[in-house]
Amino acid sequence: MAKVNVGPNAFGYPMPMSLVGTMVEGRPNFMAAAWVSRVNPSPPMMAVAIGKSHATNTGIKQQGSFSINFPGVDLIKATDYCGLVSGKKTDKSKVFEVYYGQLETAPLIAACPFGLECRLIDTVELPIDDLFIGEIVAAYTEEKYMTEGSLDVRLMKPFLLTMPDNRYWAVGEVVGKAWQDGRDLRG
Ligand SMILES: Cc1cc2nc3c(=O)[nH]c(=O)nc-3n(C[C@H](O)[C@H](O)[C@H](O)COP(=O)(O)O)c2cc1C
Fold first, then answer.
1. What pLDDT was estimated at residue 10?
2. pLDDT at 107
3. CA 104 – CA 99 distance, rounded (Å)
4. Domains in the chain and their CATH numbers?
5. Ligand 1 close to Cβ of residue 55 (< 6 A)
6. Is the beta carbon of 108 within 6 A of some atom in ligand 1?
7. Which of 49, 69, 122, 143 would you call most buried, defined as having the most Cβ atoms within 10 angstroms of its Cβ?
8. Measured from the CA of 32, which atom of ligand 1 is nearest?
9. What is the predicted pLDDT for the residue at 98?
10. What distance in Å separates the CA atoms of residue 49 and residue 129, rounded to the nearest whole number?
């Protein structure tokens, strides 16, 4: 078993692509983000790592809220664009049709199959990023992305990011059932 140490920054695992929405200078702004995760089951929360230099970082601190929108593969170009340009220099408010839920300062993207409104709960300061932890106030989808009352990943068609090769990936086939496939080994 010859393991190779590929260095602490080589993280090859897929991460979910999202667009984080905030208000920047009074207008909706969206930033591509992959360093995003669900945390704390109750109340449900999300954590997202946002570079201190990004307009989104300032927006979240000023407004105390943000949205996390999960685009489908049809939005790859627009998502990537929102990761290439900053709201500090470019007005990104017209890239997507925007809607609002309960929070007035967390713009959501109509074209995304799944969107979360988050109220900022805590901020963990890191050397380059801030880790923003937000409580999910509401989650939005449409019937067309659901099967028998549940979100259906086959219909939402999300995409994932691997780094450092910087590729977007579609989700593949179902390969198992969680909290079930290991049961036989319990004895
Ligand atoms: C595929 C992709 C994923 C990204 N993920 C993150 C991320 O998780 N955190 C982060 O701080 N920046 C991330 N970025 C960089 C920001 O999206 C980018 O710097 C953006 O221009 C910032 O926009 P803003 O200044 O309007 O907030 C990513 C960019 C791309 C293209």
1. 85
2. 98
3. 10
4. 15-186 (2.30.110.10)
5. yes
6. no
7. 69
8. 17
9. 98
10. 6
Tell whether the model's pLDDT for residue 187 goes beyond 80: no
51 lines ligand 1 (CB under 6 A): yes
pTM of the predicted model, to two decimals? Answer: 0.97
How sure is the predictor about 115, in pLDDT bands with cuts at 50, 70 and 90? Answer: very high
How many angstroms is it from 19 CA to the middle of ligand 1?
9
Tell me the CA–centroid distance for residue 148 and ligand 1, in Å: 35
**Choice from 22, 31, 92 to test ligand 1 binding pocket (greatest atom count within 8 A of CB):** 31
Instruction: List C-alpha distances in Å: 101 to 63, 67, 69, 130, 186.
Output: 15, 10, 13, 25, 44
Cis link prior to 28 (omega < 30° from 0)? no
Answer yes or no: is the C-beta of 87 below 6 A from any ligand 1 atom: yes
**What's the mean pLDDT when you consider all of the chain?**
97
* The pLDDT value given to residue 12: 85
Give the residue among 101, 15, 39 at the shortest CA–CA distance from 65: 101
Q: Identify the pLDDT of residue 11.
A: 85
Residue 47 to residue 144: CA distance in whole angstroms: 27
